[in-house]
């Protein structure tokens, strides 16, 4: 499908798959569309959330939840074929990713051989560890703050928030500190 970089065609009635990165984890969305019967099936993380059998209207919109966010798949007819696009929180996937990247920071450290995914929501200062919201203890430090939390295999884990010493556009800087070692955030690509 043109215009949606996160679209993949799969054989059979499965016409689209998307990966959506949210603070609580990386979610997969799978969409089946029977182009003769109108059948529609949506699975989130392998679990069926919508199933509609025989439908006369082959185009339309299906709305569902993914990780607490509202999402919709839009089915449109273009000539003799169909196109499929997904929106999250009322935004195109591309716009949602841009917004998400502005308001979250993600780290993918490996601690004692175990991979972890740590996400900071910069609006709420919530910290998610491997998909679960974790308890934090905050403390103010000179020029910023630290939010301490527990991470399996780490003696100490916290996110340090500091004011940027550079331009105003940079805003705040976020660093993950594990066992005294500093980690920069990564940019996750959704697709």
UniProtKB/TrEMBL annotation:
Ranges in coiled-coil conformation: none
Gene3D superfamilies tied to this protein: 2.40.128.180
GO biological process, one term: negative regulation of extrinsic apoptotic signaling pathway via death domain receptors
Name this polypeptide is given: Fas apoptotic inhibitory molecule 1
Protein source organism: Amphimedon queenslandica
């Amino acid at each position: 499908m043109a215009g949606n970089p996160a679209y993949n065609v799969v054989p059979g009635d499965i016409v689209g798959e998307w990966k959506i990165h949210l603070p609580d984890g990386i979610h997969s969305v799978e969409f089946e569309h029977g182009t003769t019967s109108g059948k529609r099936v949506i699975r989130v993380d392998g679990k069926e959330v919508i199933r509609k059998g025989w439908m006369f209207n082959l185009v339309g919109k299906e709305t569902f939840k993914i990780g607490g966010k509202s999402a919709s798949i839009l089915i449109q007819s273009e000539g003799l074929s169909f196109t499929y696009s997904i929106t999250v929180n009322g935004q195109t996937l591309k716009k949602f990713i841009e917004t998400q990247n502005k308001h979250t920071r993600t780290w993918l450290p490996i601690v004692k051989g175990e991979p972890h995914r740590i996400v900071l929501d910069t609006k709420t200062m919530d910290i998610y560890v491997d998909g679960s919201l974790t308890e934090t203890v905050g403390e103010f430090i000179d020029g910023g703050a630290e939010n301490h939390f527990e991470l399996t295999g780490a003696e100490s884990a916290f996110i340090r928030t500091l004011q940027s010493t550079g331009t105003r556009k940079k805003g705040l800087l976020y660093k993950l500190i594990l066992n005294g070692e500093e980690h920069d955030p990564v940019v996750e690509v959704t697709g």
